[in-house]
Amino acid sequence: MNDRAELVEKRLQRIEDERAILQNIYTYCVAFDQRRQEDWLDCFTKDAILAYEPSATVAETRGRIRLEGHKQISELFATSEQVVRLTSPKHVTVNAIVRVTGDEASAESIIVLFGDAGGIPELISTGRYLDKLRRCSDGRWRFCERIGHVDTLKAPPKAS
User: Fold this and answer.
1) Beta strand 90-101 with 65-68: parallel, antiparallel or unpaired?
2) Spans of the chain, pLDDT less than 70
3) Which one is the CATH code of 3-153: 3.90.380.10, 3.40.50.1820, 3.10.450.50, 3.40.50.150?
4) pLDDT tens across 74-105, in order?
5) Of 39, 44, 58, 100, which cross-links 54 as Cys (Cβ 3.0–4.6 Å)?
6) Is residue 103 within 8 Å of residue 6, measured between CB atoms?
7) Is-contact 106 24, C-beta < 8 A?
8) Burial (Cβ within 10 Å: 0-12, 13-18, ≥19) of residue 131
9) Element (H, E) at 21
10) Contact at 8 Å (CB) between 41 and 50?
């Protein structure tokens, strides 16, 4: 293969990797909102870390969360059921910046979370995700670390 063909192949691989990473980021949001636990959990490596770091203004409402491995991460999905039922969340991820280095990558994105307030969209939370991803043996990119920095958070509704 000549130099130009190798360069084109490397660029194509980088673009494919970036698209696959974005697909994982988007799948995380859609699968959570649609309560597809298996698809959501498949966004993570078996040893992944999922953490939420509240800003100083949010810290009073929500403490830090740090989960390690599929078992703990899946428990978060189960315990969020009541809040999801009350708010019908819609995660929106924007402005993702992806950096790929071989079989590892990092991504930073903005997250906006909307809920349903009696048929009217309501802003629930804003923040950003700092992600580390790994290309797994099946070729799929998954989070090995996902840290959510919560900038703003509306208190969840009370169950009646």
Assistant:
1) unpaired
2) 1, 56-62, 81-86, 155-160
3) 3.10.450.50
4) 988 887 766 666 678 899 999 999 999 999 99
5) 58
6) no
7) no
8) buried
9) helix 3-33
10) no
Report pLDDT for 155: 67
Summary mean pLDDT of the chain: 89
Place of tokens 């906006």: 112
Read off φ and ψ for residue 116, nearest 5 degrees: -110, 115
Strands 120-135 and 141-153: antiparallel
Domain locations along the chain: 3-153
Q: Using CA atoms, how far apart are residues 27 and 29, in angstroms rounded to an integer?
A: 5
Residues 6+ apart with CB under 8 A from 30: 36, 91
